[in-house]
Every structure is written in C-alpha cells, then in structure tokens.
C-alpha cells in the first residue's frame, strides 16, 4: 500500500481528490494529492530501462532546465546497459520537471498534468524542481533505441521543452 501526500490539497480541492480516490485513477508518483514511492519502483522495468543503482553510475550528465522552455543538452547519447546520473538543475524562475519515458507515456501523463497542474514528482524516472533547485535521476538504459524526456508542466511541453536520449548498442 502506498502513502498519500496532501501537500497541495487546497489546489486540488477535496471533491477532485475524492473523485480520484473513488475512480482508482491515482497518477503514479509523489504528486500533490497523489501517492509517494512504493517498493515496486525498485523492480520497475520499462521499455526504456529501469531505476539505476547509484553504486553502478559511471557517468553524470548535467541537464539544465530554463524558462525559454528548453533542456540543455536536449540530445544525449548513452550506451545500452549504462547507468547514468542525470544531475538536473532548474535555472529558471518557475517550476520545471525532467520526466523520462516513452512518447506515449509522456503524452498520457501530460493530459493528467493539465487536470492537476500542481502535481509534484519524485519518482525514479521523474523529478520536479522549484527555481534554483537541483535534483537527480539515476537510470539504467537496458534497451537500445530512443528514450524521450520532457517537462510536463502545462504549456511547457507544447512550447518545445523536450529532449531525447539515444541508447546505442
């Protein structure tokens, strides 16, 4: 069973919170009104990899988020099997997030963000950061191909705040 965090209850409203609970449609992660980490994250395997073990990190990649709705760098190269520490820094004046996933996952979650714009993420493949904050995502890329990342705050995704990780063999 996961725990519920009520950090922004007034922003969501009790009716919306109760509707979410009744429908069983809690979005994953530590969202305002959502739920926090659970033990399943440790074994979470996705089409693009799994949460990484900090002891296996061979390389750190700094990713800067800015209010011009861009990630720097926006294109990243890694090797299949590599465990990377993304050191993510919000250099802007508004909240941004780094969310790693398939294009479909990102677009589906973006629709949830439109309904609940105060969501705050703290998941193995996502980090939300206030202005000036720094966080990290440690990820092991187990499969070759392309992996997308984006900021899913309302308006940021459409403005082009996206990037891609190319996972080589």
From TrEMBL:
Keyword Metal-binding: yes
Species in which this protein is naturally found: Malikia granosa
Subcellular location: Periplasm
UniProt keywords, alphabetically: Copper, Metal-binding, Periplasm, Signal
Pfam families documented for this protein: Copper-bind (PF00127)
Listed GO CC annotations: periplasmic space
Keyword Metal-binding: yes
InterPro entries: BlueCu_1 (IPR000923), Cu-binding_ET (IPR050845), Cupredoxin (IPR008972)
GO function terms (MF aspect): copper ion binding; electron transfer activity
Identification of the protein by name: Blue (type 1) copper domain-containing protein
PANTHER family from the UniProt entry: AURACYANIN-B, COPPER-RESISTANT CUPROPROTEIN COPI
Predominant subcellular localization, coarse grouping: periplasm
Signal peptide annotation: 1-27
Coiled-coil intervals, chain numbering: none
Residue intervals of the Blue (type 1) copper domain: 64-167
